Amino acid sequence: LYAVRVVNIWNDMFGKNFKDATTRIYVDNRVLVVYFRSSVVRDSLSYQRELIIQQINKTLGAPFLMDISLR
Length: 71
What we know:
The chain is α+β, with helices and mostly antiparallel strands and 71 residues long. Helices cover 56% and strands 24% of the residues. The longest helix has 20 residues, at 2-21.
């Protein structure tokens, strides 16, 4: 249940532009895995990983997400 909510929160946070830049999004063992078409987008988000994790967990209301893997 949390895994589906995490993906939905990601899509809500980053909107259509980032959604179009991704090819695949899923949660595996409390890690959000996001595949990107663009290395530029991936690299720009890599600097904000901790902030993104905190924001997603805050929106969930639970410390579910442990890490993000940007590929």
